[in-house]
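Objective 1.3, modelling of assemblies. Example input:
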Amino acid sequence: MLKLTGTTNITLNINGEKRPVTVRPSETLLGILRGKLGLTGAKPGCLNGDCGACTVMIDGKPMKSCLMLGVEAPGKKIQTVEGLNGTPIQRSFIEHFAFQCGYCTPGFIMNCQSLIDTNPNAPDEIIEEWLKSNICRCTGYEEIEKAIKSVLRDK
Amino acid sequence: MTNIGKSVIRKEAEDKVTGRAKYTADYSSVGMLFGKTVISKHGHARINNIDVSEAEKVPGVRAIVAGERFPLTGEEIRDRPPIAVDKIRYHGEVTAIVVADSPSIAKKAATLIHVDYVPLPVVNSPREAVKKSAPLVHENVALYEKDEGVNPIPESNIANHTKIRKGNIKKGWDQSEVTVENNFSFPPSDHIAMETRSAIAEIKPNGDIHIKTSSQAPFMVKELLSAYFNIEVGKIIVDTPLVGGGYGGKASVQLEILAYLASKAVGGRVVKMMNEREEDLISSPCHMGLDATVKIGCTKEGILKAAELTYLVDSGAYSDKAIHLSRACAVDCTGPYRIDHIWCDSYAVYTNHPYPAPYRGFSHAEVHFVFERAMDILARKLRMDPLELRRKNAILPGDTSPTQVVLNRSTVGDVPQCIEKVKELSRWNEGQIIEVDKRYVRAKGIACVWKNSTIPPESSSGVVITFNEDGTLNLISGVVEIGTGTKTVLAQMVAEYFRMDTNDVYVRMNVDTQATPEHWKTVASRGTLMAGRAALAAAEDAINQIKDIASRVLKVRPDDLEVGNRRIFLREEPNRGLDFKEVVYGYTYPEGNAIGGQIIGRGNYILRNVTHLDPETGKGNPGPEWAVGAQVVEVEFDRRDYTYRILKAISVLDIGKVLNYKGALGQVTGAMCMGLGFGGRESFIFDQQGRVLNPQLRTYRPVQFGEQPEYIVEFVETPHIDAPFGARGAGEQGLLGMPAALGNSLSVAAGVELFHLPLIPESIWAEKEGRE
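Predicted structure (tokens):
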């Protein structure tokens, strides 16, 4: 039984590592990743689920980490952008100039990676449906579209 | 040229795809405190009382700043208390700051601060603000400290008035056989940088103030904090890491002031402040609204003769950058056309709205919307093709700008060529409107654009180049990497000058005002010109030093030497020379004695021949050059429910020499996307009390993935002679004509003239049906 006042100790499975952490029950996963574990790749953009900059993967599915409490996360596999290195989608984002300021990029990449993993043959409508959950203010989305499609279509 | 024009990948690319790129709020330290603002819930109200007693009792609260009278702030008029006293003038104005051990404690305490307000009558638009009966936003505007040449009108809401008087307006109207006159308007909106503003402040025991901030203007943070609080300027050290989007919004200095006051309240301890999205939208500076009256006249043949323009810039509650913004409205008050007789009156007008920061394009997209819409209305009255009307009047070398600058081929791009190309690319000749079926039509709209910068004449930029022992070099510039890739472009320029690989140029990304030469502000699409010229000057300085050492070693004249591939060699005998690594850390003779030392190249640049504007006529040279362009938007419009899809957005821009092709393309399409959002959808929705009803991204929606049109972009490359490699500004130009071209296409599609942004189906329907 989880204690719901004060603080509580939980262990999170992040990027394959077990990370014990003391949290308040109301703390979001985003707040814990950034404030307690130094994983600042997930970005706060709205804390409201509207912008997608804080997207991570939970058991392989994209999740806005501002909408999930830390205490919901034990027992789940959490993957953050820090856990990705040299993947095709990261390379593709670079090659296609799919970012400028880079602030939305980790969220977009996690969402794209999850799409690649779970739906490698995604048609255009599905790609659009998935990526609508993230906002990029610098690009006109064309480069992001090319980046994800080149990974999905060139496999 | 081997480096220039190439799509060189930005230097910080790998950091950005791995989450390792650090922005201001990513930095934290043990013991850091957190500041949280309390913001007003009203548009205009007297503050009766602020009760902090409950908030103070929350364990972990270290200080509460409220009700204290600090020096007034503001760029050209000091009209803004950093934290409200006596009254609040806009919804979102900061009324208190809580400093606490954690963000959650600060937030909890902030909710326990009770402010007792007495609501006051609200000024809800610039049009209302200039009425005689309007309530005053500032009762004593004449008493404020202000810059020379800024003249608020006492007992009014007018903060400043800029005049353009070119030619003889009476003569212009006498020559005009066809005229149109219309009102246009749009409300304030926002930049929506994905990174909300954040700032971290610390005051050291010796009084040094360290500020880390997500800013486009770290050097202005230093200058303004010094001026506002009477602190020696060298004691303020500002550090700016990567910035998560600026678009002008982070060129204003606001949150830094609050972080400084918060740190001061806790004895100088480190305090971090970060806006939540709602605060970033309404509390920090926004994007200006505008109310405009445009009257233009031409001959029967469509030759423009006169323009009479009144611009009321919604300056919100505080004038900060609004005076400069309203001045920029006057400088390029028309589209890029030859017009001999122009009168423009541009006013910065106080309202009870959030106050504006610069916004990508600095008043140009705003002015272009109203002017280019008027051009289409004039074309319709003339029964002339709107593209043809623009072609006939396109500004040319030898013509004069509204501020009476005589243009030449270097200072203005090639407007006719842009129009010609956009005509082809948009298939203009197939017709401006095409009936798809009973329900749908496709329609095109065109707009021409131009932009100069209006930055102060004394703005300068500096670059330092240092060498590493292996002959590679480090480039240090005060340009902030806000996403534009300018620092990578600077590396390309320097590499080109040294004839070496761009990979051998390391770029310092962070700006530290104590260690980095000043770059005035990362704004106005002037990084490539100003920092570029400084970088080339630094490169030349370094090369001269290398030549000096090498000439002595090789016993030749310095001017017989050349550099390339990290070597210095004799022009005539390339095999005879020295590797950079033998020279750049000093040359050591075989006997062991050495000469020279680490090569440090330095360069700076200051804009040439830029002048203040004459207060009566506006005559003067506002900036170095005009980048120009022609843009078309094509929509598919549903005549049944007034919804539309943007099919294509086309830009032909004369940005001079393209320095990094894919980088430039991204700047342009990104700006186009932003412009379509501004024109089509984005605005603050105010209620009768001046409160913003949509201060979050769920109700204020920027363009999303999948909504983007097909982008078609072509460049014309008329060189700007003064600029490195002939480049012109490119960061803003893609945005400038989008709202206008969208408005023009939808006016054709719906068969009704549209005068107001944003162009949402409901407002098109209302215009068409004649309803309010």
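Chain B has three domains: 14-120+191-282, 288-455+610-769, 458-606.
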